[in-house]
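Q: Structure tokens for this one, please.
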Amino acid sequence: MNMPQAEAQPVLELRSLSKSFGGLHAVKNVSLKVFAGDRKAIIGPNGAGKTTLFNVITGTLPASSGQAILFGSDVTGWPSHRRTAMGMARTFQVTNLFPKLTVLDNVLLAIQGLHRMKFVLWRPLSSYGDVHEKARRLLEDAGYWDRRNVEVRNLSHGEQRQIEIVLGLASNPKILLLDEPAAGLASGESREMAAFLKRLDPALAILLIEHDMDVVFDVVDHISVLHFGEVVEDGPTDAVRRSAKVQEIYLGTG
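A: Here is the predicted structure, written as tokens:
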């Protein structure tokens, strides 16, 4: 049973995290706590600094000031691979799969890339029992085991986006950062993505950037609104949804 948040240690904590490019302040003093099992979103108009913030959180970009705390450790200066080893995973806006390989082979390669293993050129990946078993478990949990031998290029765009998330789960993360998982999806595919995200392990912390507000409102329970790099609204989904400020600066109703 999870401890109350007042007693639990955050999976991820941002303390006045900032990123500047010369005189441009892309991210300004962002503070945020994400606990195990949280479903949180960062929203905001284009240019608000959302992806830059993700890049700083994951170590792709160095912070200009502030701290990123992962499982109680200050990882602000750490490279991305060390954060991954600690239990952080991330997906990107652009699909990064091998289209001519099968769903199973894509997952096997993702698992292979995370472990020190001796591979023999003429030995198929499927012959490595522990790797294959982990791939099977990931695909069964995601509902894709029956499509394991389908080449990725023959999947719909929405299905490919879901497989991207499965690959993100290959490292057994405790926190998953999703960069616009519904980007480019039709309305029906967006609903399928929301349903897919809601089926993920409830103990997994999820922090997502998303423009599709139907997905946001359906999946998350807490929203931070970023505007010109600053958090201007933060709170439960329903409260943020009703916020006049958010409707004005993000939803375009002002």
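A few notes: The mean pLDDT is 89. The radius of gyration is 19 Å.
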